């Protein structure tokens, strides 16, 4: 029998503790699962590698996402009709579409990113201050659009960046911040539906294999094209998360500041631990606190009988910080990944299990590639200073998903090779 929290409804405590809500209580109760009520509904909270295996490994048992996250979150992130709301063969068919676009060997995404970042350095040079988070979001918006085959004029960049960024920032909020983000989302959806229409009428000719061409021509198991609303939603499920990678890049810049030995290592072109560095940033720093799912077929785990339709929350952040899985979990140690292929059930910031058969993030390879390129650019393509500022990374829900509080401000930016005081 798993323990039940005594608090009648833990919503406020969850909002306060945020990323540590589940693991603090699991540690206190000596369990990997407990029952509680959130948003007035009964819920079971679980954490750890075993929990991740149970949650992701068998889609007959779990995986259903419909009704598993508040609509205030779903409508800003994956949205109704998206791959995340599908199960079984319909899910596999749609997931293959994403994997086809995002995991091809000649993924040129990071080349486009490299080009866009290098041209941005010229814009940053001479500026009294650069807010790295905001600038990288713009660089990633340009990158995502160019790579996906989506036309985007220079004049449109700030506006589309604002819309795509608000979808991520607003997802963790309730009230006016969330409502405004949904207004911006509706505008962005209208724009992207127009783009899909133009690709289908032949007014636009996106490169073959690009995200726009692939999604506009994708056929579902019944042979039909995606309706234009769903095609728009899925195209945003490529563009938005690419822009969201800016958060991980902020944290990589923060880690380079706090652990300068890694900066020197990469600046000298030594990359043996570059992928380990990227994984360690994804492990240690907060992005999504948890993922929700609904039980399909009843089963028993950890002494608890999971009933059909039961609401279950898997602790992503807590599992990445689980001392049973990670020695010294609060320490930044890229070397822990030396000679190691991350276990699909322990390093789970982007979901767990196999990519094709579960809801694990199809953008993981692209995320790692973009982050590695960003570290190369931060240590090899530019020189900059980091001024006094607030680097706090909040763990309460009100700031989820967080960034370093001041957006990681830099100044005296010059291209590498041009003298600048560090
Ligand atoms: C290149 C960038 C990215 C793309 C294109 C992308 C796209 C997606 C898509 C389409 C899904 C749904 C998969 C499914 O339901 O089968 C997904 C799932 C997920 N993504 Fe990403 N993503 C990207 C980056 C990120 C980043 C930076 C994070 C941050 C941690 C993230 C976290 C997640 C998580 C936690 C899931 C699992 C959701 C679940 O189990 O339902 N993704 N991603």
Structural write-up:
The chain is built from 15 helices and 9 strands. The protein has one domain: Cytochrome p450 (Orthogonal Bundle), CATH 1.10.630. The N and C termini lie far apart (58 Å). With 422 residues, it is an alpha+beta fold. Helix 7 (132-148) packs across helix 11 (228-258). A hairpin with a 2-residue loop joins strand 5 (299-301) and strand 6 (304-306). The model has no long low-confidence stretch (mean pLDDT 94). It is globular and about 65 Å long. Strands 1-2-7-4 form a 4-stranded mixed β-sheet, with helices on both faces. Strands 3-9-8 form a 3-stranded antiparallel β-sheet. The protein binds protoporphyrin IX containing FE. Protoporphyrin IX containing FE is lined by residues 65, 78, 83-84, 95, 98, 102, 237-238, 241-242, 244-245, 248, 287-288, 291, 349-351, 359, 361-363, 366-367.
CATH class: Mainly Alpha
CATH topology, which one?
Cytochrome p450
What is the subunit organization of this protein? single chain
> In which order are the strands of the major sheet placed?
1-2-7-4
Instruction: Enumerate the distinct ligands.
Output: protoporphyrin IX containing FE
Class by SSE composition: alpha+beta
CATH level-4 homologous superfamily = Cytochrome P450
Count of separate DSSP helical elements: 15
End-to-end distance: 58 Å
The gross shape turns out to be globular
Tally of structural domains: 1
Q: Which whole number gives the mean pLDDT?
A: 94
Total beta strand runs: 9
- Please summarize the sheet with the most strands: 4 strands, mixed
Strand content: 5-15%
SSE arrangement, N to C: HHEEHHHHEHHHHHHHEEEEHHEE
In angstroms, what is the radius of gyration?
21 Å
Helix content: 40-55%
Low-confidence stretches: none
**What is the CATH architecture annotation?**
Orthogonal Bundle
